[in-house]
Amino acid sequence: MSAPLRPPGTDGLPDYLVRLLDGAHDLPLARRMPRPAASARKSAVLILFGEGPVGPDLVFIEKSAHLRTHAGQPAFPGGGVEHGDDFPIGTALREAQEEAGIDPEGVRVLATLQELYLPPSDRLVVPVVGWWDDPREVTVGDPHEVARVARVPLDDLVDPANRYRLRHPSGYIGPAFGVADMEIWGFTAGLVDAILDAAGLARPWNTRDVRSMGAPRLSPYTLPGSGDDDPAGDAAAPTVADPAPDGPPTRTVPPR
User: 6 falls in which pLDDT band (50, 70, 90)?
Assistant: First the structure.
């Protein structure tokens, strides 16, 4: 596993981000991951915090409904490494610029989290945490791949009314968030859940609220070591919502 990268200082950062950086070396998701295969393709996602119009927020993209796979699914900006990338930071920043119009010059990289190996897709995903020093209006990059970009307030993500557990047709159950007219689930929801806990932002929510989703099959991004035996609802769900869009579409379930 890669060691977390910390900036030399945390001046000007909100307290919740300082707490996240202090706990970033031991997020629970990493403890569930197997050792990566030598053939694993490297990928990165950008977890971008900023101060939005209504308070602190996170940037998400929503995949285009016209994609063959992962159609309409929310995700963090990100994707596979390309030639010339300074992986993982360069990959995450490049993808964020291409997908969400985020200028890399306005992003302060705070940490690289543990590598997360996804065996069925043979992907090694590195989450990169950033702070948006110079936030601008988000824009859709390639409309054939991204339907929209949303800055989702942290208040909405921690609101117990927007949190529940999602049951996949396979029987798997994992965390989900119903926010900004999106249903965030899978690998992305697992990361959000772990980050909120590490940042000290999580609030008690009803983990007995289990809702069903309609999907014809498991995504190739199945993650091990989680499911019904996780009463806190902090497991990653069956899919990783970005690095190679080839999973099933999701069905939006509005929060109760």
Answer: very low
Q: Mind listing the pLDDT tens digit for each residue in 203-219? A: 999 999 999 975 433 34
What digits encode the pLDDT tens for the residues 134-167? Answer: 888 888 877 777 889 999 999 999 999 999 999 9
Read out DSSP for 73-107? -EE-SEEE--TT--TTHHHHHHHHHHHH---GGGE
Quick check: bond before 88 cis, omega within 30? yes
At CA 125, angle to CA 89 and CA 142, rounded to 5? 70
CB 162 within 8 A of CB 179: yes
Pairing of strands 41-52, 55-63: antiparallel
Q: Identify the DSSP state of 34.
A: P
pTM (whole model) above 0.85 = no
**Where does the pLDDT of residue 5 fall: very low under 50, low under 70, confident under 90, or very high at 90 and above?**
very low
**Six token digits for residue 17:** 């981000």
Q: With helix as H, strand as E and coil as C, how does 154-193 read?
A: HHHHHCHHHEEEEECCCCCEEEEEEECCEEECHHHHHHHH
Distances (CA, A) of 151 to 88, 102, 132, 183, 220: 23, 12, 12, 14, 28
Determine the Cα angle at 142 with ends 113 and 223, to 5°.
35
